[in-house]
Hints:
The complex is a heterodimer.
Chain A: E1 7-10, H1 14-32, H2 39-64, H3 73-90, H4 94-116, H5 122-139, E2 151-152, H6 155-159, H7 164-171, H8 175-202, H9 205-215, H10 217-222, H11 227-253, E3 255-256, H12 258-261, H13 264-278, H14 284-300, H15 305-321, H16 325-334, E4 344-347
Antiparallel strand pairs in A: 1-4, 2-3
Helix pairs in contact in A: 2-8, 2-11, 2-13, 2-14, 3-4, 3-5, 3-11, 4-11, 7-8, 8-11, 13-14, 13-16, 14-16
Chain B: H1 2-9, E1 24-35, E2 38-49, E3 53-57, H2 64-72, E4 79-84, E5 87-88, H3 94-100, E6 102-104, H4 117-128, H5 133-146, H6 162-175, E7 180-184, H7 192-207, E8 211-215, H8 219-223, E9 228-233, E10 236-241, H9 243-248, H10 250-256
Parallel strand pairs in B: 3-8, 3-9, 6-7, 7-8
Antiparallel strand pairs in B: 1-2, 1-4, 4-5, 9-10
Helix pairs in contact in B: 1-5, 1-7, 4-5, 4-6
Amino acid sequence: MSDVTTYSVTTRTRASVVAGLIAxxxxxxxxxxxxxxxxxxIQDLFFILTMLSLAQYWNLLAGYGGLVSVxxxxxxxxxxxxxxxxxxxxxxxPVPALLLxxxxxxxxxxxxxxxxxxxxxxxxAIGTWVVAEVVRLSVAMWKDVxxxxxxxxxxxxxxxxxxxxxxxxxxxxxTSAAQDILAYWIALAVAVATIGGIYAFLRTKRGLSLAALxxxxxxxxxxxxxAARIKWTVFLxxxxxxGIVGGLIFLxxxxxxxxxxxxVIDWTAFVIFIVVIGGIGTIEGPILGVLVFFFLxxxxxxxxxWYLLTLGALGIAIMLFAPRGLxxxxxxxxxxxxxxxxxxxxxxxxxxx
Amino acid sequence: MAQTASxxxxxxxxxxxxxxxxxxxxxxxxxxxSFGALKVTDEVSFELPQGQALGIIGPxxxxxxTLFNLxxxxxxxxxxxxxFLDTDVTRTPPMSRCLMGxxxxxxxxxxxxxxxxxxxxxxxxxxxxxxxxxxxxSDCAAILDRTGLMRVANSPAGSLSLLQRKRLELARALxxxxxxxxxxxxxxxxTDAECVELVDTIRAIHRGGTTIVWIEHxxxxxxxxxxxxxxxxxxxxxxxxxxxxxxxxxEVREIYLGIEx
Lengths: 353, 261
């Protein structure tokens, strides 16, 4: 009989320690990047970081929670409008208004979940889409923010955002470039908080029960897992984060319309593509996926409709031949996990005691 | 789990099996369940004293697993009353019944395939007892040791052999620290040697004071542990009593063993 009095539990691997250090170094580089980088690069990185955050939230829902939503554009759009409204109507500073984007998206998620959780599988997916359309049509009737044609943020609201004058002075750049830098920094902070937060959540006992529910829902309930509560938790977290990202995207854009804010192609189809080609149900997958997506978009931008056809064909090919995505292929071949969540029981004297 | 773990560990000095006069832990009164026109549970009533081990036997389709699902709440009863520790749990969802102290194994093992064996136990211990991972770690390790799964602690549950899966069913149920343990054909499909090992483990758990209800076709395994046997046929209770008395009754031999007497 082994000595069970000396045991330890660890999730750490050598790869994860190395990955952690590299991530830290990358984050530092990313923070100081605006001092050297061109404005175009900063804008590209803003796009990559915001799409990455959206993809991580959708992955949390679908890949970990089994909640395949095709209505996440509801939270992007509603979050964005809840930033434009207060900024335009009450003159609120756009930076703190981002918090409103998250809070209102969360409030929208309450009735959405209440209805959508009565549906399962494909019906859940369609239900979330219907909710998004309802919100889009409702917002299009809001005349104060431009109704169906949309509106722009006042110029001074953007140029007087918290931090913009300081950035202008620090980097000696024009107002519009300073706005881009600020938006980029916020996007970076949101992406880091998103990945870090989701990783931390998956390592809690609630995150573990999420995996148990995915493997076998009936058995999970029989050992005391509260399935309804965990679904609500995941759905609300995803809505809050998606709302903030939505607010940020349109804050940087400066202009909003119901069609662009509630675009199922931009905020759900592309996001699903990123997660699927990268590897669903992993944190690494969407990171890889967003890079592939960005390069495809850059190289195929001149080919018009061929761009969407290629994306579609690639998505289908990956689903057929590598259902676990590119990261799935890599981790299968190498056994690599950059964000390990598996708890290993180590018998004998251990460090983590 | 500190309690159960030490109880298991201290199985050498066994308390005597509980007498029928012990306080009841589970009682069913007129419980009925139909699937369409088929009555699978028909006015089932019985009481189980704390600390006793009750065996349930009956032909295939007699409604044994359905009876388990009614006790755990995986299936809702059409009529009747189920009490656990003097609380009416007839309408209580399975999650809450687990928290109250009802643990179960499934007839067909239902592991969390992608999680490791250790993680399977962690889920059960943290949620079934509302404790943190840190608090349950050593208990989970003790249960792995007790059920012979330590060697595969870090293997994905999906990669286990049948015996190991059956052991995992038992270990995961134990991890919730049950007051009442429901075992559904846990010895089915095992070789004789494997069966003996598993029965020894179950006997030790029972001697530790855990109340057990056990459905089993492998009669010699069952009768070596339980104090009472309940016979089901077409959803009805045909006989209840000590194993030798029940197995000797003419009615049971006709129904269950198909012997013309």
